[in-house]
Design goal:
The protein is an alpha+beta fold and 107 residues long. It has a domain at 27-93. Helices cover 38% and strands 24% of the residues. The chain contains three helices and two strands. The protein has helices at residues 3-16, 22-26, 31-52; strands at 66-78, 81-93.
């Protein structure tokens, strides 16, 4: 057993020690649902950080048009089913484009 694996096992044992009822672990508001929600939120936050190239709460000029705009409630579909209420960061992608010119007719 590797050191990392032993730490994970110890962490899981600590997390599960007070849960004896399967409903508390697997029910609608159980530990697995809460844990999955938190993991999905962290993954989405890390993905957004990698995409934008800067961490949350860091002042960043929006010269490239991308900006973090707060969080919103979203339903994320996972392998274990939809997970509603995930705090997903909203991003604005704005690239200004010139307005099309109208053709004028002169005779």
């Amino acid at each position: 057993m590797t050191s990392g694996h032993a730490k994970q096992e110890a962490l899981l044992d600590e997390l599960l020690k007070d849960y004896t009822d399967p409903q508390d672990m697997l029910g609608k508001h159980g530990l697995l649902t809460q844990l999955t929600k938190r993991v999905v939120e962290r993954v989405l936050e890390a993905e957004l950080t990698a995409h934008l190239g800067y961490a949350p709460h860091v002042r960043h000029g929006t010269e490239d048009g991308n900006a973090r705009n707060g969080k919103g409630q979203k339903t994320v579909h996972t392998d274990t089913g939809p997970r509603g209420g995930c705090q997903v960061k909203c991003v604005t992608f704005f690239t200004p484009a010139p307005a099309p010119r109208t053709e004028s007719q002169t005779d």
